Amino acid sequence: MTIEKQKTALVTGASRGIGAAIAERLAADGFAVVVNYAASEKAAHDVVAKIESAGGRAIALQANVADPAQVAELFDHSKATFGVPDVLVNSAGIMQLSPLATSEDEMFDRTIATNLKGTFNTLREAAKRMPDGGRIVNLSTSVTGVKLPSYGVYAATKAAIEVMGDILSKELRGRNITVNSVAPGPTETELFMDGKTDEQIKGLSKLNPLERLGQPEDIANAVSFLAGPEGGWINGQTLRANGGMV
User: Fold this and answer.
1) Looking at the 3D structure of the chain, how many domains does it have?
2) Domain of 210?
3) Is 37 a catalytic residue?
4) What is the rounded CA–CA span in Å between residue 219 and residue 11?
5) pLDDT digit string, tens, across residues 154-176
6) Distance between CA atoms of 104 and 6, rounded to whole angstroms?
């Protein structure tokens, strides 16, 4: 009897929030999970411990996705531990909000480096290394549809990620690798809540007809679908997980 090799999922930005929920869900789905983090080492190891306590396999690996050399090493270490990733989830990102007129160059450059170039770096490695039949899921934002003020730079990086992923899905023709995006609406994470007043949070929670903030698990469920066998016919698409906001 042949024992099927356990598949591996690499989740960037997986130490907290949506990324952590995705890592935990994919581990529950049977993947060995690489929990990538940039600076939050303890939080990443806490995610690994939670996965292992539930019977899963995981490892925490540090890498700044904005650095192509670190991304290449991340894939090397992933391969050495669990094998070449069968699933890549690009969850690493930053969200700094400001009207365009008052946006600083440093904020623009940092957002582009982490969100857009970081995703480019991981997509490039995955395109070269991922085995046939793999799954790539990029995290976008539903603000690309609702176009909220002060989100211009952040949303622009996510819109670019969507298009870049759609094009990659066509470039990978013949390899049975799907590339999709999940675009969350307002989701109750530290990243989202930081710097917002209670009034702002309440208003954003009412934007969708279900009248609540999304939970990280809501987004993880969508990623799980696209990363699993039942999502194999979905390719080059963006799934807006936002309760009907847009």
Assistant:
1) 1
2) 8-240
3) no
4) 13
5) 999 999 999 999 999 999 999 99
6) 45
